[in-house]
UniProtKB/TrEMBL annotation:
This is Arabinose efflux permease family protein. It is a multi-pass membrane protein. Belongs to the major facilitator superfamily. The lineage of its organism: Bacteria, Bacillati, Actinomycetota, Actinomycetes, Mycobacteriales. Keywords: Cell membrane, Membrane, Transmembrane, Transmembrane helix, Transport.
């Protein structure tokens, strides 16, 4: 059947549902990031240990994305989306009642594993159901929902922390995520182009590994890993820097995540950037902006730091939008598995580099920035190779 066009009534329902998917998933996934300084003091742990509340969630999500994608081939994308979100928000509602950092990390891991079903199939749902002529715009709106979800997952707990404890912050935030999950259940149109197929584990693994034989796909997978790892590392530890440097309260530090609005803007317009300049120049430009803004974080001037964070965040989300759309266009078959491998690498980057960067931060803020600049330089090189060394997809 033909895909959903922008002029169809189902397009509005689909894009609103995918917006809610992003809000629920990334609100829940990163809801502890603004609370890391609180966790270090309340539970008497190091920043690196506190950051495991992020890395545990993104790590188990990465591990479960491929199984969730495989199951969606048999049971359907929409069903996987809804079940995933409801289970994950259920674990989120339990976290405020926990009394140790160990159990919080365990439940965050369980929550991330359940969330895996949403990003594992959301892009595939869009690729299958939305007309190719409108896919870039719909994908951009989904990524915009991701950035808004990430923003709400930081701002809601940070704002509540000004008035109440971290338990209230986590609990009320989980209620918001649950409302978004229920909205997906109500709004998401039934799939018209999905055909269930028999699951064969050996075949699925061969397909997954086979994607790495496509050099363009391999480059996109590595870009995803490095890009999210760099972004998460900055947001994990910049709050500690702001508290130390400017003496800000944790609630005020949470306002730093308003910078995610720049990512909402840039990801929603990524389709326009691609139509004007093409995938290659756009992704190289975004990667370069990420690299050149990192030195601004050395500054002791708050305005320069905020400017750097604004531009960095906009560049990161636009890059992710372009790369994820390019993956869908490059893969001519087994798109669910392709998207899953991209997202596996994406969240492995968040989990691995977000945790590993803590050791550089423990040494010094400058050491962390040098490490992150190295990662960003690799993104620029991979993006340049992708642009100049391979043909551009139509």
């Amino acid at each position: 059947m033909p895909g959903i066009r922008k002029s169809d009534p189902a397009y509005r329902r689909a894009t609103l549902a995918m917006l809610a998917v992003g809000l629920a998933t990334f609100n829940g996934l990163y809801c502890t990031q603004a609370l890391l300084p609180t966790f270090t003091s309340v539970f008497n742990v190091t920043p690196t240990t506190a950051s495991l509340t992020i890395s545990a969630a993104t790590g188990t999500m990465a591990l479960m994305i491929v199984p969730a994608s495989v199951l969606s081939e048999r049971f359907g994308r929409g069903r996987m989306l809804i079940l995933s979100l409801l289970l994950a928000t259920g674990f989120g509602l339990a976290i405020p009642f926990l009394n140790s950092m160990t159990w919080i990390i365990v439940f965050r891991g369980l929550q991330g594993a359940c969330f895996a079903g949403a990003p594992a199939v959301a892009m595939t749902w869009l690729s299958e159901e939305i007309d190719k002529r409108d896919l870039a715009g719909a994908m951009g709106l989904y990524i915009a929902g991701n950035s808004l979800g990430g923003l709400s997952g930081r701002l809601i707990p940070a704002g509540i922390m000004e008035l109440a404890s971290w338990r209230w912050a986590m609990g009320l935030n989980a209620m918001f995520a649950l409302i978004m999950a229920l909205s997906v259940w109500v709004l998401l149109p039934a799939q018209q182009n999905f055909r269930p197929r028999r699951i064969e584990l050996r075949t699925e693994l061969q397909v997954m590994l086979g994607h790495w034989m496509n050099r363009r796909l391999a480059a996109l997978f590595l870009i995803a890993m490095l890009a999210l790892g760099t972004s998460v590392s900055i947001y994990n530890y910049i709050g500690f820097r702001m508290i130390e440097l400017f003496g800000l309260s944790e609630g005020l530090v949470g306002l730093l995540f308003l910078m995610y609005l720049s990512g909402t803007w840039s990801s929603a317009r990524a389709g326009n950037f691609v139509r004007r300049w093409g995938q290659g120049p756009t992704i190289v430009g975004c990667a370069t902006l990420m690299l050149v803004t990192i030195p601004l974080f050395v500054a002791t001037n708050l305005t320069l730091i905020l400017l750097g964070l604004f531009v960095f965040t906009a560049a990161f989300f636009a890059l992710h939008s372009v790369a994820s759309g390019w993956v869908g266009l490059t893969a001519t078959s087994h798109r669910a598995e392709t998207s899953s491998m991209y997202l596996f690498c994406y969240y492995v980057g968040s989990s691995l580099f977000g945790w590993l960067s803590g050791y550089f931060f423990h040494h010094s803020w400058t050491a962390l920035l040098i490490w992150l600049a190295d990662l960003a330089a690799l993104i620029v090189m991979l993006s340049a190779w992708l642009w100049r060394g391979t043909p551009q997809p139509n």
